[in-house]
Amino acid sequence: MASGFRIYETMSRKLQVFEPVQKPTKGKKPKVRLYTCGPTVYNYAHIGNWRAYLWEDLLRRYLKFKGFDVIQVMNLTDVDDKTIRDSIKEGLPLKDFTEKYIKAFFEDLDKLNIERAEVYPRATDHIPEMIALIEVLLKKGIAYKTDDGCVWFSITKFPDYGALAHIDTTQLQAGASGRILNDEYDKEQAADFALWKGWDEGDGDVAWESPFGRGRPGWHIECSAMSMKHLTKAFKGGKFDQKGFETIDLHTGGVDNMFPHHEDEIAQSEAVTGKKFVKYWMHVEHLLVDNKKMAKSAGNFYTLRDLIAKGHDPRTFRYLIQSVSYHQKLNFTFEALGAAKEALKAIDDFILNLGAAKAPADCKELPSLLDKLESEFTASMDDDLNTSPAFASIHIFMRDINRIHPKLSKKDAEKILVLFKRIDSVLGVMSFEREQAPKELIDLADQRDEARRKKDWKESDRLRDLITKAGWVVEDLPEGPRLKKV
Asked: Could you check whether the bond before residue 260 is cis, i.e. omega within 30 degrees of 0?
């Protein structure tokens, strides 16, 4: 199925028309298997993390908009260097420590209106699958054991190592034939990486038994095991089944995941299966804050919870993130968040004002404007999720409708709402439910309206101020006062 949806694929560095691996079954939607790198649950996710998760949600939603049946798996990394380090620091068992941040992740995810993936596997629930993959690599001679109980992947045994990040391993710094025990490292440190880490005192009581000794998995093998387990038929009865593996359609993450994490995933997965691991790789750029890398020491580090505590609506943050192409570094500022709030307010007001449509006949200009909006929106999103012109087409449409608004009938307004809801199934930022004001505020608005009719402006202003302090504004319309949440 040629979808017309073009994506920038990281490995090829080219725009490609997206076509799923599996041929669609007659009478059923074509299936897309999507693996997205999820949070390492040692702290609250910061706004840079949320840029990636929001973009992945946009991708998921647009695939569904295009008629695909999406099966998304987003992992929860609940064992790695950071989770072990910080759980020991807090004196908590690893499971109790990570559970707090897993709960917080889902709370924040819902506040941002991110659709739930079909599966959220935890690394600690997939140790047998990781062990099974490592055993295959050892048997093939691509992995090797050392006296400290670790098992390593030999990058020299995988000729295509570095293809995703476009790294020439022959040009790396001296020592590239050595080993890297840490989960994360720089391109210049490319070397054999740990598949299994032998236990030491720094791990506390975090360890599992394996054929190669007591220890724990490396970070990279976790995602290979979880993606294969839930998106393919590579495991049967706890054993690896090479025939059951089929190339995964899409794998996404931030550009910081490209190397070493995704590079190592490819190497170990393809060395095990002998097949292409992923058809399309996609990566989202960094989020900066005040044109700097986010860091607590720089005083520019924010979580979603920090933004909410400062009075900002998560919906506004979602709008800001999606207003810029995922290929661009996004510079977060509170001024930019304020501009996003105003842009979103314009959409909210437009939707709210559709309720006032009452022309007796349908508007002749509307059908062509609706067709234009839908075609422009789809064309922009088909162009590698190019959200900037997609949002621009919405605002231009609203400008054109506001010009002819008195000509709209209630049926016209319904047609606009149907299209806006279809578009928002992708964007997830619009509000279609008008919040009902409390009765006491409605009474104040009626009293103010009465004061205005009597030309008692002092009393009218006093009542307006009371309404404003409660977080509402009163709009004076021909049919009477209307209250709107600020």
From this structure: yes
Beta carbons within 10 angstroms of residue 213's beta carbon: 16
Would strands 192-198 and 179-180 be described as parallel, antiparallel, or unpaired?
Answer: parallel
CB-based contact 253:188 (threshold 8 Å):
no
- Of all helices (H) and strands (E), which one includes residue 235? strand 235-236
Q: How far apart are CA 432 and CA 423, in angstroms?
A: 13
Unique residue bearing structure tokens 């002749």: 364
**What does the DSSP 8-state code read for residue 114?**
P
Residues 3-15 have pLDDT tens digits of 799 999 999 999 9
What is d(CA 407, CA 364) in angstroms, rounded to the nearest whole number? 9
| pLDDT digit string, tens, across residues 155-167 | 999 999 999 999 8
- Separation of alpha carbons 353 and 300, rounded Å: 38
DSSP-derived letter for residue 336 is: H
d(CA 454, CA 446): 13
Using N-to-C axis directions, what is the helix angle for 314-322 and 334-353, rounded to 10°?
Answer: 100
Q: Which residues pair with 76 in a beta bridge?
A: 122
E runs forming strands in 142-214: 143-145, 151-153, 179-180, 192-198
Q: Distance between CA atoms of 167 and 160, rounded to whole angstroms? A: 10
- Buried b or exposed e, range 146-173, using 16+ CB within 10 angstroms: eeebbbbbbbebbeebbebbebebeebe
Radius of gyration of the chain (CA): 27
Determine contact, residues 97/201, Cβ cutoff 8 Å.
no
CB 401 within 8 A of CB 370: no
Count the Cβ atoms, other than its own, within 10 Å of residue 476.
12
CA 404 to the chain's CA centroid: 37
What 3-state class would DSSP assign to 167? coil
> What burial letters (b/e) apply to 290-305, b meaning 16+ CB within 10 Å?
eeeebeeeeebebbbb
Q: At what angle do helices 387-404 and 410-427 cross, to 10 degrees?
A: 170
Number of H helices, E strands in the chain: 15, 17
Query: Would you say residue 196 has pLDDT above 70?
Result: yes
CA 104 vs. chain centroid, Å, equals 16
Look at residue 450 and tell me whether its pLDDT is greater than 90. Answer: no
Mean pLDDT of 304-325: 96
All residues at 6 or more sequence positions from 16 whose CB lies less than 8 Å from its CB, including other chains: 6, 7, 8, 9, 280
